[in-house]
Amino acid sequence: MNQAKLHRLLSQKDKNDQELFDQRLAANLTLIQKQFFSLYPEEHHEKDFQKLLNLLPTLFLERPEILRNQDLNRLQSGNWYQSEKLVGMQLYVEHFNKDLEGLQEKIPYFKKLGINFLHLMPITPRPKGESDGGYAVNNYLEVDKKYGSKEDLLELTKAFRKNGIYLMLDFVVNHTSNEFSWAKKAKKGDKKYQRYYYIYEDFTIPAEFEKTLPEVFPESSPGNFTYIPEMEKWVMTVFNSYQWDLNYTNPQVFLEMLTNLVKLTDMGVDVVRFDALAFLWKKIGTISQNLPEAHNLISLFRMCLQVVAPGSILLAEAIVAPTDIIKYFGEEERQGNECEIAYNASLMALLWNSIATKKTQLLYKSLMHIPSKPKDCTWINYIRCHDDIGLGYENHLIQELGWNPEMHRKFLLDYFCQRLDWSPATGMLFMYNPKTGDGRITGSAASLLGLEKAIKNKDEDLLQESVRKIIMLHGITLAFGGIPLIYAGDEIGTLNDYSFQNDPVKKGDNRWVNRPIQDWETISNLDNKDLPQSNIFDALQKLIKIRKENTVFADRNNLQLCHTGNDHIFSFERTQGQKGLLVICNFDENAQVIDSSWIKKLGYFSNGEPLDLVSGEKVGLNSALLEIMPYQMLWLVKP
Ligand code: GLC
């Protein structure tokens, strides 16, 4: 039982504030104490623990009444984030419709498509020039002027609550910008704030770190430290040189960041995206990712939130190896007490592998290799986001298939990044590291799936094929269990946007190719059913509706992979008591057949031909074989 469940058992509406706080603190104090002292074991940190104990009631009392009531309701209603009713979209406010006010005007558009969960990319103030798309934060609690004001944000969260839309915002917890007030003071020589970051007199310690630290942006920001002439010192900057890594070995940093976190949730944020959380703890001699201390720290944040704002939950942005991602749900006593949600980056990357290879063996092998997740946790399933696609597959699994991991990754980069004439994909190579041969892929879903090439070459067959691929991949994320997250623009098959190449601030980072402006003109023409954009939009709208109407799609760890004997097919079943839904997808450009006896055994033909919810038609058998067309997806209902 996780702490949230414990709160559910204990929660009674008639408690007054003080009683409620005392009860929540009592229920979590042992865990809080344990995590705190595991990170800060020295005796002199007892006074910092005392500070934490003083801080929590203040934060609790400052939480707006309406959210405190919402906390209680959410605790009582169970794990809302696992519902089949949730469907999400991720967007850049300024690329979508100008600013926060403009976004609010588009609530009808979200409703039309069926979106009720939004991830807004950072809206906090950032440095003028490069800012890593806002992931360099100047202030955690203000809204950058270009988006509007804090009042606009409060208005927006109010409107979202009224319309049943959940909001996710980033908490860039690993680093601040070099213009953040702490960084400014550190630059001026303030020792207190120099201790908020990893700052060194000379390169001796950085050199030790560098022996094992990988590089995140080897092309644009090589190395992990930056020399700051004003201080005549080095600061750790694992991401870009203007993003200073926070030093959580200093408990004062934790206390201040906890305050920022809670205040963020107090603005009406339902899910906090813990950005780059794998990097939170650093240690010489390691790659400084996924360290046990990072998990303790995240759980400490979570447990404090459980006391003061239990209705807000955390998403782990850990784009790391599959077996490492799962750990952000918490292990042992931290199980279910770390992050409730994590990006299913493994599924995402594996789907792209299956598109390029037209085969699903690595997908099966990898999914089977991932330990099952705790039952109170869920995924965000997605195919594209604002970032690149990393090829984080397990080497030994690639080898088991008889492939050479290095050559296989090279093939994928060639396939997606325009280095093979026959490939339909129009992607770009991102952060190729000649030292290691590693590279990542950028590009919009539609361009990576052939729509750009099809339109350019006026190739109708390729166009139809790419539309089918786009719908199939989204269909998998809608059916897989968790919150499906559509990247804004993908619902209308938006192509790559090359305008970043003319912008001096953006041209060094080709992730901007997949950060397009929302195309409202195309959207205003969606009634024209000849457009591929309309086909995609209509298909997704329909699939979303079907998902919301079938409780079998709620995530209860109720997914079983089905082995079909055909390497081009991906199939899984979702079950709920007697109810069942069988997903079958063909990743090949040719029609494929599978033996139907196992489908019969599962009971899908026990009442005549089963209904396919996607086409709305019954599915018949061709002798004992079931035929699946190229890039077709079936959602068969168990009668
Ligand atoms: C996350 C964001 C990415 C950003 C990085 C550093 O990975 O998704 O866009 O560059 O964090 O904040």
Automatic annotation (TrEMBL):
The lineage of its organism: Bacteria, Pseudomonadati, Bacteroidota, Flavobacteriia, Flavobacteriales. SMART domains: Aamy. This is Alpha amylase. Pfam families: Alpha-amylase (PF00128). InterPro entries: Amylosucrase, GH, GH13_cat_dom, Glyco_hydro_b, O16G_dom_2. It comes from the Bacteria. It comes from Flagellimonas profundi. CDD domains: AmyAc_Amylosucrase (cd11324). Residues 90-547 form the Glycosyl hydrolase family 13 catalytic domain.
